[in-house]
Automatic annotation (TrEMBL):
GO MF entries: symporter activity
Keyword tags: Membrane, Symport, Transmembrane, Transmembrane helix, Transport
CDD domains per record: SLC6sbd_Tyt1-Like
Protein name (record): Transporter
Keyword presence, Membrane: yes
Amino acid sequence: MKRQTWSSQLTYILTVAGATIGFGATWRFPYLVGEHGGGAYVLIFILAMILIGIPVILVENVIGRRAHCNSVDAFGGNVNNKPIPKVWKILGYMGIIGSFGIMAYYMVLGGWVISYIVNIFSNICGFSSDFNLSSPIGKEITSSFYEKNIEHAPLAIGIYTFIFVLINWFILRKGIIDGIEKSVKYLMPLLFLCLIAMVIRNLTLDGAIEGVKFYLTPNFSAITPQLFLYVLGQVFFALSLGFGVMITLSSHLNKEENLIKTASITSIVNTIIAVLAGFMIFPSLFSAGLQPDSGPSLVFKTLPIAFSQMHFGNFFAIVFFLLLIIAALTTSITIYQVVISVLQEKFKCSKNTAINLTLLTIFIFGNIPSILTYGPWSDIKIFGRNIFDAFDFISGNIFFVLTALGASLFVGWVLKDEAIKELDNGKDTPSKFATFWLWYVKFIIPLIILAIFIGGFVIKI
């Protein structure tokens, strides 16, 4: 059967943007900025997107479009009429393991967000008064709510997570084009509109300018070797590199698409969304007199305090959490598709069987353990971390880094001239950009990735 291709360059870019703009941009990026120097982090992040993000996206784009198949078999085939050693396919399987690890806790984060939406909406409708953001609240209330409704509510979070999984299931059953492409065409503009509305609202708050100053003014004393490691790790996380996502999505590109253009636009759009997320969050924090360095709990424990000090706080809180769930959804459906494509094409499963098997397996062996992390299984430790954090650390700091490193070596040392030809859309004479890119990928990128990997065991990215 002929492989489906994207209906247009725009829909592909929207889908890739959706895949990369998830909790990485709306949850992880803001709290890392808050912890690491404000404007200094933003400046280095933008530079890293240009110097690392675009070249590595091109690596996975070339691998995917060259093979026009799933993320495991994409590391096979022939080069110069010689078969590629099968050992390279290990990289594809590593990407699947990384995808499992990310989805194991990612879907549960979606369940957390749904819990906030349900509880805030219940207050608006008068069904509950536990979390009313129509008047100022303190950290004691947000912390108590988090403990009661997130950490110590495994059944409720299990139900909300399952609902989020069902939404993904419904979209995935429609396939790459009718499901993922058409959904993202509507979800991405909606995400952008919600984000712009929140930015405009928060920039008009009293004291918002102090948040903007913190966000945009680089504190050069904060620029250290450690900061570079945090930034580089975020670039990989934000662009979904090393999971097989870009390989899978680009395998549905036709041979006429300009890979350089699409990769550049993808990185630019991702950077813009991440930067806008900062304009949404920091003005509201400084307006409420809150500290920006509260870490991963920034969105769930600290930001609701800021919403409670706004007019129509409940309304804007719901808009914000809806924005989070939309961003998470556009990412989760594409990560699921990595595993589904392998089951369909390599193991000859039917589409529905592949979807059901993927979602059910991740729910049972990944989502449920993550949900139970803060309850009955709180004493279980893996590498000194609870189950939830272990999934994040192992997949994000080990598998995605090693997979991206292997992909760069594969392009630079195995595909070589064939990679240049793929990037140049089959031109006989290689372009100067493609020639430089291959050299950069062959020598420079592996050194940078190794630095991230080694540093990841010393500093949690």
